[in-house]
């Protein structure tokens, strides 16, 4: 009986969501999800996203809500958005993996060299913001060690500060480089999710051009170029072609 009353109250709350503060919308979305009202939860989370807010938790929750309503392309889209902000989160990666088992296309990626795979795992260890914070911390520590080197009268301390400073400086430059490259990747390299149930990839940005291959909703593509309303895309196995813009949504 209590649960029924709670659901009735929740329906009344959801019915009055115009111009509500974001924290109130978020609370109502969480409550709707807890009461297994997944479509309402997705609608409320989406309102927050449409207001311009973003966070890994928000995208993750929205992905979960869409997954529960069997909207797999939307679930994958928001899991991917959450992963960009928190690349090593186990829950995000696990749910994204589960969602990808629900789509038609099982595209095998091009094999990578060991060193490239190792670099990618290191690269994705943290987000761009985290790598930037690490580099800032490294710079601060470097100047502290520099002060010890310049001001200390003990040779042992000066030697330790000098060699430790070199190591910290190298690591700081390394982490700053990763932060810069990762920032560029997030801002410049565009990826998207296919939202058309079945669509043929074309050889050029023209509906009358040659058919290359078929792709299905939920598949992730990399955007290479845009011409008018068409996008040149690349899939994980290296195949390239063109899709109309209305068939995809950018991550």
Detailed description of the structure:
It is a single chain. With 251 residues, the chain is α+β, with helices and mostly antiparallel strands. It folds into three domains: 2-100, Tetratricopeptide repeat domain (Serine Threonine Protein Phosphatase 5, Tetratricopeptide repeat, Alpha Horseshoe); 114-188; 190-250, SH3 type barrels (Roll), CATH 2.30.30.40. It is 58% helix and 15% strand. Strands 6-5-4-1-7 form a five-stranded antiparallel sheet. Strands 2-3 form a two-stranded antiparallel sheet. Strand 2 and strand 3 (211-216) form a beta hairpin. Helix 2 runs antiparallel to helix 3 (38-50) and helix 4 packs antiparallel against helix 5. It starts with a helix and ends with a strand. The model is unreliable at 1-14 (pLDDT under 50).
**H-E order:** HHHHHHHHHEEEEEEE
The whole-number mean of residue pLDDT values reads 88
Would you tell me the structural class of the helices and strands?
Answer: alpha+beta
Please identify the oligomeric state.
Answer: single chain
Proportion of beta-strand residues: 5-15%
User: Strand arrangement, largest sheet?
Assistant: 6-5-4-1-7
